[in-house]
Amino acid sequence: MDERTQVLVAGGGPAGATAATLLARQGFDVTLLERDRFPRYHIGESLLPSLLPVLDVMGAREAVERHGFTRKTGAFYGWSGQEWQLRFDTSDRPAAYSFQVIRSEFDHLLLEHARAQGVRVREETQVRRVGFDGDRTTSATWTSRDGRAGQTHFRCLVDASGRAGVLAARQLRTRRFHDVFRNVAAWGYWRGAAPLPGAPEGAIGVFSLPEHGWIWAIPLHDGTLSVGLVTDKRSFNRARDQHGSVDRLYAQALTQCPLLERMLGGAQRVSDLKVESDYSYVAEEFCGPGYYLSGDAACFLDPLLSTGVHLAMYSGLLSAAAIGSVLRGEIDEASAQRFYRTAYRHAYERLLILVGAFYRIHDGRDAYFRKAQTLSHRDQQDLRLHESFLNIVTGVEDLGDAQDEAVATLIDRLRRPLDGHRAQGLGGHGTSHMVPLPTRPEQASAGLYLTLAPVGLRRAEADRS
Q1: CA 77 to CA 208: how far, in whole Å?
Q2: C-alpha angle 111/175/457, rounded to 5°?
Q3: Contact yes or no for 233/183 (Cβ under 8 A)
């Protein structure tokens, strides 16, 4: 088969489904190739309120609401010897709630929504290689599970192929793993758990351990509780050798969290454990001539603050705005890609620093774990620390003499409470403060900002003149 499309999307997860839906709703010809048959299992079940405006723009909010996912109205932290809750029903949040989702169902819902919006969706079809004309992507070869093979020519590619990373990991080899967050996650599902006492309705529970790592607890609408352990690789391997298996390691870790242990007192684990490791990475470039990397194909941080689906759908929105504006002839590609690169990387870097800051306030007895979660000098080399500092901390004009210790200075400032917030955790600096949609001229990235009706880009200078 030899075919053509305006936009090819590789991958049907939240990043790919978001980009494809928004482009199709603008009238573009979009083809999406997905390796698996949906629904398929995926981790990353706790969503942030910042996603609700993206669902609105996609026209998918009603379907998600109707599905019956658990409403997440906040979070509960048993962290560093303190307990506090974060509620979403405050005036500075993008929405009063979010969702705890079974990802197989959520992702399937978004993919079917993309299909209903006119996207040509082909499942069980894997992109094998991307073709270039010089340094520009122009085509992709693929194979399907039933033995067919073909080539699709396009004007623009959204690589949303996840951790597999068709471009960054396999072809261009521009993916770099961070020294920080070299962690291991092990998780399973429990039935019959008691509710988390003193927590907002549907809240995720996040509990630091006395020595190595932390545990998540996420209530799902099928009556199960997702419970995961995250720790550094060295501590994980040492504990596995000591206890003889991952199952025993996991069980022993749960006993170190008295509140969670009480919740699980009458519960039963109803799944095998799943394990993932070394999942923190970033591509050197998020876009290039004819292509955009989106979601996990571009970068992944850490499960601590539930940023994975946010970055996926956020980047899907940014890529759709950039591509749509270029195809309509409103913005040249170089300008659109500068916007995408700047806006996406700023969001990623802010969250990278925020997650690192949260780990740094971990008051465990083992200094190694805290050290293992610290940004190394190599990790900091390509970060725009000064810009991230100014974007995160309001009212700070300059780092002054602190340039060499920018991360430490920033973390210290993040621990100070915002007005009206309690002096706990990160002092009220939640993720919604870090990644606002750049929808106003004063939020412009590389001189451009987002418009949502229709989805596209506008020049900030034109609006100021």
Answers
A1: 8
A2: 55
A3: yes
Report the number of secondary-structure helices (H) and strands (E) in the chain.
15, 23
| Long-range pairs of 386-391 with CB within 8 A, sequence gap ≥ 24 | 387/346, 388/346, 388/349, 388/350, 388/353, 389/413, 391/346, 391/350, 391/434
Residue 390's pLDDT is what?
45
Per DSSP, helices labelled H in 244-301 are 246-254, 258-263
Amino acid at 11: G
CA atoms within 13 A on the CB side of 13: 28
Confidence band of 464 (pLDDT split at 50, 70, 90): low
- Distance from C-alpha of 16 to C-alpha of 315, rounded to nearest angstrom: 9
Q: What angle do CA 250, 252, 254 make, to 5 degrees?
A: 75
C-alpha dihedral (63, 67, 68, 73), degrees to nearest 10: -40
Q: Are 342 and 445 in contact (CB under 8 A)?
A: yes
Q: Tokens at residue 360, please?
A: 């740094």
* pLDDT of 203 strictly over 50: yes
397: its two tokens:
């004009």
Alpha-carbon gap, residue 117 to 97, rounded angstroms: 26
Residues 6+ apart with CB under 8 A from 282: 175, 176, 178, 298, 299, 348
d(CA 29, CA 37): 22
Statement: residue 76 has pLDDT above 70: yes
CA dist., res. 324 & res. 321, Å (int): 5
**Tens of pLDDT along 379-394?**
555 655 545 544 444 3
pLDDT value of position 396: 36
**251 contacts: CB under 8 Å, gap ≥ 6:** none
Could you give the CA distance from residue 25 to residue 126 in angstroms, rounded to a whole number?
A: 24
Query: Do the Cβ atoms of 184 and 236 come closer than 8 Å?
Result: yes
SS3 (DSSP) at 18? helix
Give residue for tokens 């940023």.
Answer: 307
Q: pLDDT tens digits, residue range 146-171?
A: 999 999 999 999 999 999 999 999 99
Confidence at 311, pLDDT banded by 50, 70, 90: very high
